[in-house]
Amino acid sequence: MPKPLSNPKTRRAFDTDFKLQVVQMVKTQGVSISQVYKDMELGPTAVKYLLGQFEAEQSGHSGIGKPLTANHQRIR
Fold this sequence. Notes:
Layout: H1 16-27, H2 33-39, H3 44-58, H4 70-75
Helix pairs in contact: 1-3, 2-3
């Protein structure tokens, strides 16, 4: 039988401004994905997910989760 975790990690939540900051670091400032996730203390998957969500919204799709862009926030 597996042991229960003694120190389980809690799921972190980030506001829209933080998410947009992460996307802007890669898209407009030219910071590499690996540098962004190290600087912002995120995992690489989280950064790639946010970039994918942003790109989906920019191409007119709804994306996944809470909208990042103001236009999609207004629509929702």
